[in-house]
Amino acid sequence: KAEAVDLILYRNDVLAENDEQSTDAEWELVSINAIPSGLKKIPMGPITMMRNQLELPGGTKAHYSSDEWAESVRFWQEFAGLEPENDI
Fold this sequence. Notes:
This protein is α+β, with helices and mostly antiparallel strands and 88 residues long. It has three helices and two strands, in the order E-H-E-H-H.
């Protein structure tokens, strides 16, 4: 059961670095994350953390502790993201 929702927005110029923008709008909603009951926030996903720490295109320079990495992996193993089905 979810208690709250996080809306993840990215600026168009950041998305454009990897040709990931889908509109010309200044901001895009890229993710809607339900926050499970009992948690105040959800950790950033490991792939996003990797992109940031390795300073890959589309990332924001950052450094994460071992505890932050472990918390992220534990959370996302338990609460996997869902992808919409492709109608082909």
